[in-house]
From TrEMBL:
Transmembrane feature ranges: 76-97
GO terms under cellular component: membrane
Protein name per the record: Uncharacterized protein
Principal location: membrane
Top-rank lineage group of the source organism: Eukaryota
Localization terms from the record: Membrane
Species for this entry: Salvia splendens
Length: 138
């Protein structure tokens, strides 16, 4: 956590510490007076009257954050690329390769037949159990 990110400070006195650089911008640090930073000739920025000659430059933490935001997250790129290539390959084969399409849908029909046969066996077993229960209760 950087100094500019602090939110619960009531008192801040950094005077006479030989600090150098730009005072970080933050919600609470901007509320302190110039006396909190006096006798630090290397400091610049608000609330001091000393302007920073290098206002375009970022603090090391800000530079690091900016670099992290610009960095490409290759895990996501590779996952998306793999998905697109895999899906595109299957779609292309189904659309443009007749032999692949026939084999693919043939396998789908075999799997479908297996599920139908399993379902029919379960129904027969359930009906047989129901018939046995009826015979016992009569």
């Amino acid at each position: 956590m950087g100094l500019g990110e602090l939110t619960l400070l009531e008192v801040l006195n950094l005077s006479y510490n030989k600090l150098v650089g730009m005072i970080p911008k933050g919600r609470q640090i901007q509320t302190f007076s110039a006396e909190s930073f006096e006798r630090n000739p290397g400091l610049c920025g608000f609330p001091l009257n000393t302007n920073c000659s290098h206002t375009d430059e970022l603090s090391p933490r800000e530079q690091e954050d900016a670099e992290e935001k610009r960095e490409i997250e290759w895990e996501y790129v590779s996952a998306a690329l793999g998905y697109v290539v895999g899906f595109g390959s299957i779609a292309w084969l189904l659309l443009f390769c007749r032999s692949f399409r026939e084999k693919y849908f043939g396998k789908i029909e075999v799997v479908e037949d297996i599920f139908i046969a399993r379902d029919m066996r379960r129904r027969r077993a359930r009906m047989a159990a129901t018939a046995r229960n009826r015979v016992r209760t009569q």
